[in-house]
Amino acid sequence: MEVMTKTDPSKQIEVSRTKEKFKKIMQYRWLYIFMLPGLLFFLIFRYGPMWGLIMAFKDYRPHLGLMASEWVGFAHFERFFSLPDFWMLFRNTLLLALYDLVIFFPLTIILALMLNEITREWFKRSVQTIVYVPYFLSWVVIVGITHILLSTEGGLVNEIIRQTGEGGAVHFLTSTDWFRPLIVLQMIWKDAGWGTIIFLAALAGVNPALYEAAKIDGASRLRMIWHITLPSIRNIIVILLILRLGNFLDLGFEQIFLMVNSLNREVGEVFDTYVYRVGLLQGQFSYSAAVGLFKSAVGLVLVLGANWIAKKFGEEGLY
């Protein structure tokens, strides 16, 4: 008598799905291989060090090690929030971040739109090269050029002011009034051109037939930009805005550190420079880790909130 064996249909479906997934992986294996270095980078340098966040809740002593150091809970956070420096740091960081969001980010969109309107290819490529070049300069070079131009002793701008008889030397580099405008101008000069790359790539995908139809209807260039170009790249703008909010309080240590001095520290000290000064120079590692964790938590909340708002308005968002 022959024994009939029946296989479970659900298992067959699961096996077939597994084979199909493996087949897909093998089909696109080179794409996965190209993705591997970036994945390893984030695993090693982004996710791996996250276990060290426990330092913010301990009184870290190097000779004891991280795990053997005393657990203090939220003591470092309570200390940070109770200091008068907290509101000074929060105000300075928030204002510079808002300038970055309100001035710098829209400027990259406007610059991309202007570059996209250039019809002569050789001229367009020349302008792109000129605005891209400063991105490859380090902040040390950028700040050095700023000092050469604005120094009170031999600075080009102050020499012009003296020669024209418009007044005495202006203390740009030590003035509390000029610090934030200089930071924003440096950011625009260095990074605005590079920030247009993604927008230009998105603009290249806009259907030319839409412009032709609008031109037949008598629409001006500004009308076409407003009703065709901007709506076509709206999703990209929203996604990049959400990503930028994630780094809302991350202004870049090098630029601020090189521009801050004892005379403008009241308006120039931000979370990043404070962490360096207190954490590394004074050896308060746990306290500086708590400050950094607070800054990261604010960025996370902003990303989640902005993504939720984008979803509410019908945009794709990040997830």
Automatic annotation (TrEMBL):
It is found in: Cell membrane; Membrane. The keyword Membrane applies. It comes from Halalkalibacter akibai (strain ATCC 43226 / DSM 21942 / CIP 109018 / JCM 9157 / 1139). Belongs to the binding-protein-dependent transport system permease family. PROSITE patterns: ABC_TM1. GO terms for cellular component: plasma membrane. InterPro entries: MetI-like (IPR000515), MetI-like_sf (IPR035906). The lineage of its organism: Bacteria, Bacillati, Bacillota, Bacilli, Bacillales. It is a multi-pass membrane protein. The chain crosses the membrane at residues 30-48, 94-115, 127-150, 192-211, 232-249, 285-310. Keywords: Membrane, Transmembrane, Transmembrane helix, Transport. Residues 90-306 form the ABC transmembrane type-1 domain. Pfam families: BPD_transp_1. CDD domains: TM_PBP2. One of its GO terms (biological process) is transmembrane transport. This is ABC-type polysaccharide transport system.
